[in-house]
Design a protein that fits this description.
Elements: H1 2-16, H2 22-37, E1 40-42, E2 48-50, E3 54-59, E4 65-69, E5 74-78, E6 91-95, E7 100-102, E8 106-110, E9 117-122, E10 126-131
Antiparallel strand pairs: 1-10, 2-7, 3-4, 4-5, 5-10, 6-8, 8-9
Length: 133
């Protein structure tokens, strides 16, 4: 009997968590990126960044991650070439073999409370944005 009650609840929960259509996600992603980079100048893309310089990350929809750094005037924007699940209260787990995070490194988006994976992706180039003083 418990199985019969759990399955409909799971189906209902999954249906409520459906992602918005890609066109809406893209517009929202671009708006988040524009807000995050406002007043900043983009630099040349870099294939790697030192993990020691990174403080945290957040997403700008499914299209990009924004990495904050120890330097409050610098952020890195990374656009995974194939997209990536958006961080909505989730965490980003990186898999590196050294002290740098690089283009092509795999990341996993997961729920930190349950450990449930929402998917993953390979990173793209890191574009530095420096805030003008």
């Amino acid at each position: 009997m418990k199985n019969l009650l759990v399955l409909p609840l799971v189906a209902l929960t999954v249906g409520c968590m459906a992602e918005p259509p890609p066109a809406q996600t893209s517009a929202r992603s671009e708006m988040k990126l524009a807000e995050a980079t406002e007043g900043s100048t983009a630099g040349a893309p870099q294939s790697c960044v030192s993990t020691r310089d990174l403080l945290g990350n957040r997403s700008a929809g499914e299209g990009a991650f924004i990495f904050s750094t120890r330097n409050s005037n610098l952020i890195y924007v990374n656009r995974p070439p194939a997209g990536c699940p958006e961080l909505r209260g989730d965490a980003l787990k990186t898999r590196t073999t050294g002290t740098q995070l690089c283009r092509g490194d795999l990341v996993e988006v997961f729920d930190p409370l349950t450990g449930f994976s929402r998917g993953g992706c390979g990173l793209g180039d890191f574009v530095p944005y420096r805030r003008l003083r």
